[in-house]
Amino acid sequence: MKHSRILVVDDDPDVLTAVRLLLKQQAGKVITEHNPEQIPSLLAKETPDLVLLDMNFKSTINTGNEGLYWLNRIKTIKPNLPVVMITAYGAIDLAVTSLKQGAADFVVKPWQNEQLIGVITGLLSKSDRKKAVEPNKAVMDAEFIGESEIMQDLLYKISKIAPTDANILVLGENGTGKDLIATAIHKQSRRADKPFVKVDVGALTESLFESELFGHKKGAFTDAREDRVGRFEAANGGTLFLDEIGNISLQQQAKLLSVLQNRQVIPLGSNTPIPVDIRLICATNVPLTDLANENRFRKDLIYRINTVDIQVPPLRDRGEDILRIARHFLQKYAQKYMKSIADLDKKAEQKLLKYHYPGNVRELQYSIERAVIMADTEILGAEDLIFSAIEQAPQNNQTQRQAPEEHNLVELERITIANVVEKHGGNISKAAKELGITRTALYRRLSKYDI
Fold first, then answer.
1. The pTM is what?
2. Residue 63 above 60 pLDDT?
């Protein structure tokens, strides 16, 4: 508790003073706040280890609704942050309700000082023990924001297979974070202190494939002016991550299979094999059923690279995680661009939850960054969220959406606005100017048509 940071939120100044005086000798820092509306911005600026939160604000009626509301907001922003509810003696039932909704404990006013310190000390000790016995989970939380069941299942699977040397195939759509999965597996493996080498093999030409992966000797081909170590040899003892493995040719597959079977490479221009000891992780956005087509991918290579496969879920299947990730990026870019943007409003939350995210986490990240740059308010609204025109582009390479055959004015307006916004790459000022309307009017129409 000595170095801990405790946030106390209560609209009673006497309570704030009493808690600050009680804890100032016990904790590293005590942060007090009388206005719960400041909680999101405080959590963005501070990193408290525990929150003391009153159940009632600005009311003589003990409904507890406002306290429960802010409890849920805190758990949405920082799911693992312990919250202790402060309640009146006659509101024990509300305190029990708060426990069911994620509170770590509650104290009843007026409390005994020893009791309050005991509750706080116990929770902080429990948190420290959890961090000590779950270092891998701590690593994962830093890279994957996910409380949904589907993400918890993924994290559990990673924790089981990472310490092994099994070859892993990571499957998932573009933008889901397959490279982060590979990095996290390496960090949790027995090879964590050894090299982690990433290669986008899908971008390698036939002529570069062998040289890049297996290395070459000086004079092996034109422009080979010196010896070069290949990626397999560079990753020796560590992890080799081959991204976009589903895009390599059958000829490249045969060469890769030979190296994996023999566990040695022969650089171009040499006849001397070099033994390699690597843990292999591959990734692709090609479904496993498509890879099983032998006209596209060798089955013997699939079995070699796919001791275990991991399916990374698309963002649209992750429920409330969407809001957690959005707030993570909001805090990140508000700090980067020195904006005092604290949170999302309800309409913005609904817009984020309804969208289908063809570009997954990457698309959400860029949308939030754009919104932070353009916003002039402290709370992002639905009108601030413009999703990528790149992901909305039609797949038939036509630059304009096709107008409907029927002359529906509403639909024609929607298509016209979408085309103009896409034309200007999401620049609202330029799009509004071409349409002959104000920025505010354009924002209203974007929200109306969910563009």
1. 0.57
2. no
